[in-house]
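Q: I'm building a small set of examples for a reading group on sequence design. Run inverse folding on the following structure and report the sequence directly after it, with nothing in between.
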């Protein structure tokens, strides 16, 4: 059954990939038929046209057998901190500290079993927040945030609840004052939620919805075709707080944070697009300690012979040259003519706008109909036979 479901899903994805390629050509080809050049950023809802997607530079390989499903990543001065997503294997349910060579140096146990740890964020003082926020079936009454203080022997559990029903989420950010911000995995239009009050161990604190934004369309190659760019799988804030990044299975979306307001930056800003092509299942992202690069990790691909996850490095362009925050939402991004990696976006035409909205609507419908089944298949493949969650 699992093999059949996987084959069907792969076939659907293949067909959709072809349809997406054709529609993408209709949407972004300039007059004359030449491919559009790369752009520094794009307004919400506009396509990412002709992205010249280069793979990141390998940094090191994570070959520890306890880390096949890395979903959260934070860089430190002497290495990295990572977590797996929800696992039925006891020795994988840890907060792992890695050296600069990606070898595990130590691990920290949870005092009780987490449900589905999907991301982590590191505060300037070294505090680690782990987002136990995954909920593929949207059945959890509460989700959890674990706080691991510097030098602590175990993280402390804080429970939170959504004001509008259950959500699946895989991205966790920190505001300038250290408040956790959950970004949901709602297809196309993720929501942002923050605690409506101080977090306290042993107490469930309600969340409040602080905003939402629209993910841009993308032609970056990824294993999930049109679904990949429409699902947020991780996030991070730059060490100096001046930028915030959210990733999908296809791209990183980087926003300027000129006033320290992370939520406002995401909700109203125009992101700079950084392609993250063809990672097997890319869910983890972090800034380097000096803020000059993005670091990403994928879950391990399926199969016994699959390669171990590789930490990849993507340089971040000079902010003053790309400057997406200077553009108003919905306006064409400003491009620096002397930057070989930045080109001009073609002005939108009326028939393209109509077609774009149509494609967005179709994609959203397909996501709602198939995303739950597709990701259930993924979970089922990793779940030991006969083991219920």
């Amino acid at each position: 059954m699992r093999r059949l479901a996987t084959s069907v899903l792969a076939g659907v994805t293949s067909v959709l990939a072809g349809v997406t390629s054709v529609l993408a050509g209709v949407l972004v080809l300039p007059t004359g038929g030449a491919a559009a050049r790369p752009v520094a950023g794009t307004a919400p809802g506009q396509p990412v046209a002709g992205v010249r997607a280069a793979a990141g530079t390998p940094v090191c390989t994570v070959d520890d057998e306890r880390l096949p499903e890395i979903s959260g990543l934070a860089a430190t001065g002497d290495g990295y901190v990572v977590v797996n997503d929800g696992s039925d294997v006891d020795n994988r349910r840890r907060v792992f500290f890695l050296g600069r060579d990606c070898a595990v140096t130590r691990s920290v146990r949870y005092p009780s079993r987490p449900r589905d740890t999907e991301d982590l964020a590191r505060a300037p003082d070294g505090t680690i927040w782990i987002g136990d926020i995954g909920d593929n079936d949207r059945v959890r009454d509460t989700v959890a945030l674990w706080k691991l203080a510097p030098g602590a022997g175990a993280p402390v559990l804080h429970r939170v609840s959504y004001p509008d029903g259950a959500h699946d989420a895989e991205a966790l950010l920190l505001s300038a004052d250290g408040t956790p911000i959950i970004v949901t995995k709602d297809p196309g239009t993720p929501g942002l939620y923050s605690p409506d009050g101080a977090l306290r161990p042993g107490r469930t604190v309600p969340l409040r919805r602080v905003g939402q934004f629209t993910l841009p369309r993308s032609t970056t190659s990824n294993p999930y075709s049109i679904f990949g760019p429409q699902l947020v799988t991780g996030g991070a804030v730059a060490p100096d707080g001046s930028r915030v990044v959210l990733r999908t299975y296809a791209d990183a979306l980087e926003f300027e944070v000129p006033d320290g307001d992370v939520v406002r930056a995401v909700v109203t800003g125009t992101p700079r697009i950084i392609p993250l092509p063809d990672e097997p299942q890319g869910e983890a992202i972090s800034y380097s300690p000096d803020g000059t690069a993005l670091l990403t990790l994928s879950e391990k691909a399926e199969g016994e012979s699959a390669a171990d996850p590789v930490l990849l490095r993507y340089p971040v362009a000079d902010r003053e040259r790309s400057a997406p925050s200077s553009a108003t939402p919905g306006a064409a991004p400003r491009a620096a003519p002397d930057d070989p990696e930045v080109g001009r976006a073609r002005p939108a035409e009326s028939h393209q706008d109509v077609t774009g909205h149509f494609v967005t609507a179709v994609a959203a419908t397909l996501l709602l109909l198939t995303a739950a089944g597709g990701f259930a298949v993924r979970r089922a493949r990793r779940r030991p036979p006969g083991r219920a969650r």
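The helical segments are 2-28, 262-268, 319-322, 350-382.
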